[in-house]
Amino acid sequence: MPATILIGTQWGDEGKGKVTDWLANDMDLVVRYQGGHNAGHTVIADGHELKLHLLPSGILHPNIISIIASGLVIDPKALIKELDEVAEIGIGSPNLVLSANAHLIMPYHRLLDQASELKLGSSKIGTTGLGIGPAYTDKASRVGLRVQDLLDMKIFREKLEVALIFKNQVLTKIYDAEPLDVDEIVDEYKGYAERLNGIIGDASRIINDSLDEGKNVLLEGAQGMMLDLDYGTYPFVTSSSPIAGGACVGAGISPLRVKRIIGIAKAYTTRVGAGPFPTELEDATGELMRKVGVEFGTTTGRPRRCGWFDAVILKYTAKINGLTEIALTKLDVLSPFETLKICVGYEYEGKVYDYMPCHQTVFHGAKPVYEEVEGWNTDISDIATYDALPKAARAYVDRLQELIGAPITMISVGPSRDQTILR
Asked: Is residue 334 domain-shared with residue 291, that is, in the same domain?
């Protein structure tokens, strides 16, 4: 069976957790392929609300093998906290595999992340300060510690001692911070090793063997496409690749294994942190979107910036990722509005772009070109079929599909698993 990739098409927070959980009914494996605990998925099922940061969204299904793949950076303390939280609702021994090749977030990564943001001042990127970027930096520099190093604390100590020679110099001489102690870190991570030892394994082999056996595999990313390190709004991006190509790298499978690529798009647009956002609404309309949509970060609690749907971004995302279909989420949040706007282009210095401009100056200074459409101004959260949606809601979905160039096959009208319309 070919694998299915599920990606966010905007700046994240599109509702990937709910859609992953919904699709998991037909899956044997659910794989998280990139990012760290700086991202979050909220899953509501069977009366439980879980805020997941590292655990794949299929964790609620006891029959599914959940994989944390090699493309992630792992804070062991954060992972253990999540395992304890799922245990509290009765999932005490989830079918979970943690890739031995995933990299570890170390205490100095968090300190460097926070200190760097502080030094940047008004030019800061808006990171979560959890050490994600510095951990990926060490991975690329070939000086990182990996999950498999927890299996041999002698090797762990040796690698840590080498790393701290440089890290302590940076902390003390550049950021005027206290140096870190090798023994303290070893003692801390020895405890993590004892807790995680039983779930560390060869994730890529398990995924590929499962595909060979004809099993259904779902690959889920964390952040959205517009936070991709190469194709997002650099430098206001994450440090990994949430795009479909990144799924193959992070999970360790061939692109030939993939046939279905589902893009998750919110019916409007949101963003957390700094960076350009052409359709942002810094007025009462944006505030109402935030309130109705409960737009606050799963990880940080920060209020999300809100704006109208940006079809230019979605068209760009569809091409980069080769989207075969779209799952449209939070359509119900737009119910209070009598009229809606869709961004169909950008205007910059007299020129209109109906595509994503490659020059960051153009994108940063772009003004949205809007198309106005009728709203439905009625609650749709209890509607179960597409034909039962108000005419204006169906017209809105049809217009988005036309602009994006990919079919919208799923529509979410509420946070629960059963508030999903198939089209």
From this structure: yes
